[in-house]
């Protein structure tokens, strides 16, 4: 396979024919956003799309950098899609993957700065302060293996065993096939993180099997592999091996990454804290 | 107790008489540094010093900001003291506590940036690259509870259970009684972190009992509690309750904190990687 | 003088008698904020308050950290006070002083991240994009002399001569006498920066005389000098000379500083961009 | 021109024939580094290379990330090349261009953190502290126009007029044609910054003509324009217009950028402070 993409939607577009047994596709749309849900329920579907059985929702949105507040149809469809994947109750552990030193890989850490952590707030404090009842949320940025010496999955697994969440949400930067996906796409799925996905490209699986609880992954494509671009341009694999370590990003990748991180954080905070108003969440969602 | 200090040495100085059963004290000195080792072996000693049984080494050094390279007698005595507390073999987990957003509490995170993480490097890679045999080291910055929703101890415990180190080194910023301690003092001990110590002042115990492996704590005092200062100046507790949330720090706390973090990192890297030369470690120890 | 404060209001409180020729004082108040305007118009007033002739507005507000959106009476009185000091037209240069590496001195740089810079946007672009007419604003963070080798005032003066603004707004962290001022106070004045004020404590004058245009200073007290605290507690100067390099700050100084910086940035953006709605400015005011 | 490169060496490689009147080329080499000096002295040479008359030195080095200390032949040839371009005496202003929020554009700001600023140190202090005589150096990071509202050249020009340096050194990230240049190349020249060069791609000229003093530019290529890569792969301009806003960078661009910034800072500090030993400079050159 000479084309690399972490997006189920792009893999689906690459299929020779549209209809496959055990692959179901449906759409929803509003003025700023179109959601495509691909559901894989057969092994034939797994093979065809190169992804495990489960639900993949891709949001195609107006550009994150159109300098709007992002609190429009995009946010609404993100909240709805995420709510559909989340268990109704129980502590949620948000694990923000990526390297804060590499702009297009910093989606996770930037997002973590904006997620409301609430698990440590005693119930008595909530009552005293007359806060609305908050859902327990924990947030970690495990860092990258090159700096910690530990697999990201091991860190998340160790904490999962300690705090026993009802579900884990993993946030990560993704690779797309097409540069037009950058800054305009969000993917949610209920199958966690696949081996080899992400910008850093060295992840092991982080999913229900490895953690023992449901794992929802939310990702934003921020790079295209240079080798994929080269293949798409020339129709053959690049002879220059240095391409394999190169990525293609927009020149304003910092603005796209920050806007995308804020949009995801808003979506997670809204989906988890149903007792807070939209206005309260917007004002609380800042690093 | 109106005086707050995390330093065993300062607690010892406050004792009405010098000799206590089960409290042993010894000294070592070079041109830049004096090491005082206080060993508590009795319950009487525990009560007198308000600290659990164990070994406490306080290094009193030339000012961290005397713009030298720090690679002098200070580093040598730090390496020697740390080596004396460390198990000879096995993986070491370094846990860097503190809040990178508050300068005097950022010792841990700044230090973590400079510790060599090696546990993920496959033995075959070491052989291929003809690297000297490296000791397995893992490094985490668990962040602060207000942002994660998780007790720091829970995070470290979860990871400890996963990677099963032979020992944990915890790095933290401390509170001293005297402002003259700031920028000139390092404390090492084999009893871990006590409840209520550190700059953030809300830690639960992190020690052999809670983690199941030996826990070495390395700390640098970077603040004096304003209430302690006030008591020392006036001989009574401050009436103004707002003092309890105030800390006293040097105006150049950023320089002191950075220099202190680098010194600790150098000491840890040298004590753990005995197969690398001093020069190799100095050149590798940069954020 | 054993008491250090950059607040005209605290200097006024220290006067032996309230009435002084050429010192006029007036008040305005709403539910979240009280504004005290001290106007010094005589040399007697200058001597009594130790401040040059001009207008000093002190806002005493609800705590910045009461976790509200800050967009209440505080913001309204800040906008009104600032509008009263600003020239109606012309480019405004915002100069954000301070050291981003020292939390309580980082008000300026944090604020600069949130000020809308508009001077570079071509008028044709505004028309094409159908933007409302924006006032020309330039923003600089000149850094600290220890890192640049240049006096802050020299940098601002050099840029002022190039871009010829109708006025300069200087943002700085201040020292107060009382710890109760921290996180609850904003000072505005039309006399610029005095020598020796600020957290770093080494500023030279930055004012109409040195820059050739009106200079408005906006400051937030974030520290109390340890020597001042000591004097207030004991009634005499501290014998311990190390006090002179120490400052007292709240333990949550990072949260106070961030909230204060955002409040000032909101105020400046609202006061300067009268053609944008409050909602537009709030959504655009993020780092 | 479908190929974009800021490197004189790459432009020279693109020439149909090697010999051009008024273009002189010479070489020097050691075990880690090869220096190619291209001197353009005729208008024919200017047209052929698309660069103004002057001296361009390109250092082709071992990879910055070969995890050595960098203090080898690379540093020596960098110091020698820079010394050859610098005036012997007088204050030097170092201006570090670029956006610290975009990893491959952050060479300048990262470098500025490591340059020794000395201009503010009074001569008496040097004598008292028995420091060797230091050359006056000032350092600024002017930021990017989108955040300041001011052209970078205006800021540098304003400060130049204030402090009247004998020369300005401008540091910037560059675009190369070939990905093999990334992390292995440094360019020095005495013609300053050309319009449209750099990663941000919007610079106006910063040179002797605009500043009134000699301007030395030091740059490291950290990106390849996606449109250039596409042209090189396919032989024609990309039809997809989104390519024009895309850049190609290595996946470990953070490590390359940090190592490159440190190497340049070491070179500048050594070339400017001839009275400090290599060891003193290495120990002082840290952020």
Q: What's the rounded overall pLDDT mean of chain A?
A: 91
- As an assembly, this protein is homotetramer
Order of helices and strands of chain A: HEEHEHEHHEHHEEHEHEHH
Low-confidence stretches of chain A: none
- Strand percentage of chain A, roughly? 15-25%
Query: Structural class from helices and strands of chain A?
Result: alpha/beta
Largest interface: A-B, 31 and 31 residues
Indicate the CATH class of chain A.
Alpha Beta
CATH architecture of chain A: 3-Layer(aba) Sandwich
Please state the CA-atom Rg of chain A, rounded to the nearest Å: 19 Å
Question: What name does CATH use for the topology of chain A?
Answer: Rossmann fold
Indicate the percent of residues in helices of chain A.
Answer: 25-40%
Q: What is the CATH superfamily classification of chain A?
A: HybD-like
Shape of chain A: globular
Describe the structure.
Chain A has eleven helices and nine strands. In chain A, α3 crosses α10. Helix content of chain A is 33%, strand content 22%. Chain A has a single domain, classed as HybD-like (Rossmann fold). By secondary structure, chain A is of the alpha/beta class. In chain A, a hairpin with a 2-residue loop joins β1 and β2. The interface between A and B is medium-sized, with 31 and 31 residues. β9 of chain A pairs antiparallel with β9 of chain D.
List keywords for this structure.
homotetramer, 287 residues, alpha/beta, Rossmann fold, nine-stranded mixed sheet, 11 helices, 33% helix, 22% strand, globular
Q: How is the topology of this model organized?
A:
The structure is a homotetramer of 287-residue chains.
Chain A: H1 8-13, E1 23-30, E2 33-40, H2 43-49, E3 54-61, H3 73-85, E4 92-96, H4 107-112, H5 123-128, E5 137-140, H6 145-148, H7 152-163, E6 167-176, E7 185-189, H8 208-211, E8 215-225, H9 226-234, E9 246-250, H10 253-272, H11 278-284
Helix pairs in contact in A: 3-10
């Amino acid at each position: 396979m000479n084309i690399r993409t972490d997006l189920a939607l792009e893999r689906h577009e690459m299929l020779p024919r549209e209809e496959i047994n055990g692959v179901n596709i449906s759409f929803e749309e509003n003025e700023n956003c179109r959601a495509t849900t691909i559901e894989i329920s057969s092994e034939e579907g797994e093979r065809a799309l190169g992804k495990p059985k489960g639900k993949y929702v891709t949001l195609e949105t107006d550009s994150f950098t159109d300098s709007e507040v992002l609190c429009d149809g995009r946010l609404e469809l993100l909240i709805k899609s995420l709510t559909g994947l989340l268990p109704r109750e129980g502590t949620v552990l948000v694990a923000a993957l990526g390297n804060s030193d590499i702009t297009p890989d910093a989606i996770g850490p930037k997002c973590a700065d904006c997620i409301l952590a609430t698990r440590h707030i005693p119930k008595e404090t909530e009552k005293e302060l007359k806060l609305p009842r908050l859902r327990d949320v924990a947030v970690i940025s495990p860092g990258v293996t090159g700096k910690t010496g530990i697999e990201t999955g091991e860190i998340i697994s160790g904490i999962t065993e300690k705090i026993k969440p009802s579900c884990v949400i993993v946030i990560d930067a993704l690779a797309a096939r097409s540069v037009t996906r950058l800054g305009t796409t969000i993917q949610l799925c209920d199958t966690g993180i696949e081996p080899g996905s992400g910008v850093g490209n060295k992840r092991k699986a982080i999913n229900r099997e490895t953690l023992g609880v449901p794992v929802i992954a939310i990702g934003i494509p921020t790079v295209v592999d240079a080798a994929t671009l080269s293949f798409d341009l020339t129709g053959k694999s690049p002879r220059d091996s240095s391409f394999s370590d190169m990525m293609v990003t927009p020149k304003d990748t910092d603005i796209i990454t920050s806007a995308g991180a804020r949009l995801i954080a808003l979506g997670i905070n809204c989906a988890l804290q149903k007792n807070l108003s939209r206005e309260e969440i917007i004002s609380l969602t800042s690093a």
